[in-house]
Write a structure and sequence with these properties.
single chain; mainly alpha; two-stranded antiparallel ribbon; cobalamin biosynthesis; cell membrane; ABC-type vitamin B12 transporter activity
Length: 329
Amino acid sequence: MEIKLIILSLALVLDRLAGDPPALWQKVAHPVVLFGKAISWGEHRWNKPALPVEKLRRNGMWLIVWLVACCLFLGVFIEALLPLLGTAGALVEIVIVAVLLAQKSLADHVGNVAKGLRDDGIAGGRMAVSMIVGRDPEQLDESGVSRAAIESLAENASDGVVAPAFWFLVGGLPGLLAYKLINTADSMIGHMNERYRHFGRFAARLDDVANFVPARLTGLLAVLACGLNMGKESGRKAFRVMRADARLHRSPNAGWPEAAFAGGLGLALAGPRRYGAEKVDGPMLNMQGKRSANAGDIDAAVTLFWASMSLLTALTITASLIGLIYRLV
């Protein structure tokens, strides 16, 4: 386990410093892009509107089961191959893990929303936020754009960083690759609209299971980061709101980090939203918080995100050192 912790520690640092260089992924397809192409291929082949509901659900389930099995096999194969490369194998594993984390890219995308609002007003904010959320940005004012960016940051702190790290520690590269496939499938077909309601049902449920523990860990990291960086009262408020409001969210998992961010930042998040023509109702998290968010609140959320990620990295490094010391003793 201490070897995994060391690899994860170095991968977290590498991802924080380098992120996803655009020049690289213009030449080589990102693994998540390849996952998306496989899911899209299967969806177009087996998600036929004329099929009965039960057949659609079975097709969607078997597609995800088959793709997850492929990821597990690929992960096992890579893990068996890497030791043959010696030190280079360890370096390759660090790079693979870093590629499948999303600290810098997530913070950059959310930061671009604040920059867009400052530089180009509501039009710039809407353009930037459309890159990270599924809802219709044309229906959002400055406050709506800002809150959408912060909500996406909080939720993806779990989906894009904590959950991949968690599943790497639990299952190595097979666990990491399987999780990224599951999360990608949920983002593509796990929607409650007419096209995906039945075919994507299994993908959405499996993603809920995969994120159950990581989402709660992310909320706790945000609470601790609030207390350490913004004062004990901010940490207490983040914890109180998370405990009281997390289960109000329409997602069984997203409410935990979002509620922690809402409490720590003093904002009211979530609530009703629109995805294209579909309006989704939902209660507010931290109802008593401020609703008129702006670019400054996005900056504060990014600062909280980095504080949470720093805490995650510090805890991972500490655990790896404890493991090494224990082994030496």
